[in-house]
């Protein structure tokens, strides 16, 4: 099995981190280090009809599968090319109807198993790391994660056993743990979830809260671009998590999902934590215990909102989103008695409120929250952040929709300035966004 390698990049042993990637030549900001096609991927169910199942192209007038009528394609060519994967689900979706409900992780795992049956040589996604070499961290899994794995194993057997030769329990346990720890979420230009995938070579990169590269997507291909100057010999570092939050929160997330604590410069110095946790200047300053109590409240309400949003599933309108908006507003009122609007916990709930307003088509409400968010986002996130770009993009499109063209174009241009570095100037998103404000001139 021959290893092709990647020009300008090599696999190496990173001190204290294990395997990693490092540069063997210089890269400037915006340079493409490498592109990695997905080993296996799956379109999320909520985007069916809007994106092609095979290539993730977004367009109107997609052709549907004649049998299940659930999968959509650009053309017959895309449909035929996807059949080896779609056939795992096509008949089952017809047979189970509304009861067909495997999780996205289960769907992705089924496709990996199917590919492993036919993949003999090293794939183009495994130039530096084989899928079987992905970390599983089985020994670090707590009981809750083990139970979730077992639930997924049962779902695999239930939904896929008629069309797929499923590995034994031990092999499945390892594979699911690998997928959970190394899977990637494919997102669009506004960071909306499009699907899940595995990119072995991309997974080889280690984490830093001061990343020098960013991962974006062109269809089902992951692209890794420099967001800092990279010299020959430098380790290539990405971020596994949302970097908005303070050091303690970031490391809690890293320990829970990836089983390590970050020791990067930002985590060591905590230089941004004070600004991220900014407290109001009051005539009677809040006591340290009151601040700690509000932090505990903020963390709890964020988790409560996540559960409420998931259980009520506003995306399909099964519950009035007004309840979620009220939850946001009440929490903002309470936190605002101690926290500044630039505090990251305030920003988190403002972002959720903005999302609910967009769903409710309350454009003015969404714009109001977005305007409060954008400046502190630019302060808290690193340069060329997709979170900042997506906020500029949302605001730009809101302003254009409300026929406030100068503001709309200004924000779209700010989004483009970030996205041309993060996605590359030739990405189709650039042409689409430019067309939006060209039409408004």
Automatic annotation (TrEMBL):
<keyword id="KW-0949">S-adenosyl-L-methionine</keyword>
<keyword id="KW-0805">Transcription regulation</keyword>
<keyword id="KW-0539">Nucleus</keyword>
<dbReference type="Pfam" id="PF01753">
    <property type="entry name" value="zf-MYND"/>
</dbReference>
<keyword id="KW-0804">Transcription</keyword>
<keyword id="KW-0862">Zinc</keyword>
<protein>
    <recommendedName>
        <fullName>[histone H3]-lysine(4) N-trimethyltransferase</fullName>
        <ecNumber>2.1.1.354</ecNumber>
    </recommendedName>
</protein>
<dbReference type="Pfam" id="PF00856">
    <property type="entry name" value="SET"/>
</dbReference>
<keyword id="KW-0156">Chromatin regulator</keyword>
<dbReference type="InterPro" id="IPR002893">
    <property type="entry name" value="Znf_MYND"/>
</dbReference>
<feature type="domain" description="SET">
    <location>
        <begin position="7"/>
        <end position="241"/>
    </location>
</feature>
<keyword id="KW-0489">Methyltransferase</keyword>
<dbReference type="GO" id="GO:0032259">
    <property type="term" value="P:methylation"/>
</dbReference>
<dbReference type="GO" id="GO:0005634">
    <property type="term" value="C:nucleus"/>
</dbReference>
<dbReference type="InterPro" id="IPR001214">
    <property type="entry name" value="SET_dom"/>
</dbReference>
<dbReference type="InterPro" id="IPR011990">
    <property type="entry name" value="TPR-like_helical_dom_sf"/>
</dbReference>
<keyword id="KW-0863">Zinc-finger</keyword>
<keyword id="KW-0479">Metal-binding</keyword>
<keyword id="KW-0808">Transferase</keyword>
<dbReference type="GO" id="GO:0060047">
    <property type="term" value="P:heart contraction"/>
</dbReference>
<feature type="domain" description="MYND-type">
    <location>
        <begin position="52"/>
        <end position="90"/>
    </location>
</feature>
<dbReference type="GO" id="GO:0005829">
    <property type="term" value="C:cytosol"/>
</dbReference>
<dbReference type="InterPro" id="IPR046341">
    <property type="entry name" value="SET_dom_sf"/>
</dbReference>
<dbReference type="GO" id="GO:0140999">
    <property type="term" value="F:histone H3K4 trimethyltransferase activity"/>
</dbReference>
<dbReference type="InterPro" id="IPR050869">
    <property type="entry name" value="H3K4_H4K5_MeTrfase"/>
</dbReference>
<dbReference type="GO" id="GO:0008270">
    <property type="term" value="F:zinc ion binding"/>
</dbReference>
<comment type="function">
    <text>Protein-lysine N-methyltransferase that methylates both histones and non-histone proteins, including p53/TP53 and RB1. Specifically trimethylates histone H3 'Lys-4' (H3K4me3) in vivo. The activity requires interaction with HSP90alpha. Shows even higher methyltransferase activity on p53/TP53. Monomethylates 'Lys-370' of p53/TP53, leading to decreased DNA-binding activity and subsequent transcriptional regulation activity of p53/TP53. Monomethylates RB1 at 'Lys-860'.</text>
</comment>
<keyword id="KW-0963">Cytoplasm</keyword>
